[in-house]
Design a protein that fits this description.
UraD-like, 17 helices
């Protein structure tokens, strides 16, 4: 799929051709959209598309709506993207005849009432689920329905772009957040349920990752071995082959950073470094600190210096690259 930067650099005709599959054609609308460049990102592209669709002449609005195939149309007449979205049954499966007949009748009634084609973001729902939506639409106001249909066309286009390009690369801080939670599970800081809860939190925070989603559903799917799911997730974020040794190193670096930044007490950070990585220097510091109550202030200074040495300069923090 053409990127936003590439779209911004293309000639108008090339932009129309690149975006045509997302909107099923509608060349006049697409030329207006091409003329509205540059776009900063996909959100701006589709926000502008929605505004143009709502404001352009009704003749062009209807052209945009009618470019889409009817819901329930013969699969042979629909584009590949439309066939996937409309949830057509696989070869050999025979849908109940009444569903197709009902959709045909409702589509004809809708087009006769409003003068344009019914559009809805199907998102893979069974065709039978569209029947009550179409029935409700028939009772709507024409202007309201025209606007709703145009908005749906833009939703469809945005979903198509996402499916064609695949997930966007995760920002570095999100990759690191995933690596930290997986690493905690690898060294035993959290158990299976703790890891699954962590995936739920990351998803709620906006992390979009198919592999993360699969891991979040592990308990629902009665998946006994998380190893394959974890390996898939780490490969997806560019950390294939991640193991307990690398996990301990990453967690030790973060514990060292918390000491250097005065986020945690030196002894607490030292204990964590010793536990997750087996670092001999920090094991010794912890043992000495616990045995020498009177010398703890001096040992705190030693721990801070050792943490600063372990953490290293900023350019050395490439644990997740």
């Amino acid at each position: 799929m053409t990127t936003i930067d590439e779209l911004n650099a293309l000639e108008t005709d090339a932009v129309v051709a690149a975006l045509s599959p997302l909107f099923e054609g509608a060349p006049r609308f697409l030329r207006r959209l091409a003329d509205a460049r540059p776009f900063e990102n996909e959100d701006e592209l589709f926000g502008v598309a929605r505004a143009i669709a709502r404001d352009m002449p009704e003749e062009e609005q209807i052209e945009l709506l009618d470019a889409h195939p009817r819901i329930g149309a013969d699969p042979a007449t629909a584009s590949d993207l439309s066939r996937r979205e409309q949830g057509h049954d696989p070869p050999g499966h025979h849908e109940q005849a009444w569903i197709g007949e009902e959709l045909t009748a409702l589509n004809e009634a809708y087009e006769g009432r409003f003068g344009f084609r019914f559009a809805v973001f199907v998102a893979g729902r069974p065709r039978a689920d569209i029947i009550p939506i179409l029935e409700r639409a028939l009772r709507a106001d024409r202007d309201e329905e025209l606007r709703r249909g145009l908005d749906e066309v833009v939703y469809i286009a945005a979903d198509r772009m996402e499916s064609l390009r695949g997930p966007l690369p995760l920002r570095e801080e999100l990759r690191e957040a995933i690596a930290l939670e997986v690493s905690r599970s690898m060294v035993g800081e959290i158990d299976r349920d703790g890891l699954v809860r962590a995936t739920h939190r990351l998803i709620e925070e906006g992390v979009q990752s198919p592999a993360l989603l699969a891991l979040s559903l592990a308990n629902q799917d009665d998946e006994n071995d998380l190893g394959t799911l974890i390996e898939r997730l780490m490969s997806e974020i560019g950390l294939g082959g991640w193991d307990a040794t690398r996990a301990g190193q990453l967690l030790a670096l973060h514990a060292a950073a918390s000491i250097v930044g005065d986020v945690s007490q030196p002894i607490d950070g030292a204990r964590r470094i010793a536990a997750v990585s087996g670092n001999a220097q920090f094991r010794d510091l912890v043992s000495r600190w616990e045995a020498d109550a009177d010398g703890r202030a001096a040992l705190d200074g030693e721990i801070r210096r050792a943490a600063a040495e372990l953490f290293g300069p900023p350019d050395d923090h490439g644990a997740t690259t």
